[in-house]
């Protein structure tokens, strides 16, 4: 039996994206929070309704709409400055290898609804398509998504859409919605899995040397 582990829906994804659109000072987000426990930290999180869930290594927060996000910093484990935020709106795991085909059919069935939910908030994506599309774009920054060579090896991202920042607002992120299929899913002897992930990347000028 397949197990969906997030308990979220496409409507939940739309709510998370609407919350992102309410962020009006991305440079302050990318600069990262003060270390946990201080009044300044609570003020930083509270500005956008982010409730901290952990103080260990990466910062994990819960939003007003119930989604969980992991905040990744440039160095790793230092909290700031940040380079990306990650949220999982859907994730399914097979109970056995016999269910791997079901993982693939379920993944194909849920992707359109999640993409539609994102389009409803963000508008048409800059590009969308599968992993093997001949016009699959190269990432504007190496940390955003796999290069063609890596993608051909891993089929990851399996399905993909991204929104480039528009206008001249400093710090506006690249937003990437992608679906992955875990390697065991392609085998006959290991239980597979698939996930949809929402990644929000700092534009290149805020990436520094990368993490």
From TrEMBL:
What this protein is called in its record is DUF317 domain-containing protein
Protein species of origin? Streptomyces polychromogenes
């Amino acid at each position: 039996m397949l197990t969906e582990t997030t308990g979220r829906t496409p409507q939940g994804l739309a709510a998370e994206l609407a919350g992102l659109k309410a962020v009006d000072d991305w440079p302050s987000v990318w600069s990262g929070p003060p270390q946990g426990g201080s009044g300044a930290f609570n003020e930083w999180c509270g500005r956008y309704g982010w409730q901290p869930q952990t103080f260990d290594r990466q910062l994990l927060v819960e939003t007003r709409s119930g989604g969980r996000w992991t905040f990744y910093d440039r160095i790793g484990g230092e909290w700031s400055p940040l380079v990306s935020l990650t949220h999982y709106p859907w994730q399914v795991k097979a109970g056995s290898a016999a269910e791997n085909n079901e993982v693939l059919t379920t993944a194909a069935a849920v992707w359109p609804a999640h993409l539609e939910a994102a389009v409803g908030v963000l508008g048409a994506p800059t590009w969308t398509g599968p992993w093997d599309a001949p016009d699959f774009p190269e990432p504007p920054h190496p940390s955003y998504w796999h290069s063609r060579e890596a993608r051909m090896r891993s089929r990851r991202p399996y399905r993909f859409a991204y929104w480039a920042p528009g206008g001249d607002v400093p710090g506006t992120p690249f937003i990437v919605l992608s679906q992955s299929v875990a390697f065991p899913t392609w085998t006959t002897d290991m239980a597979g899995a698939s996930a949809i992930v929402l990644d929000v990347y700092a534009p290149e000028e805020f990436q520094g040397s990368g993490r």
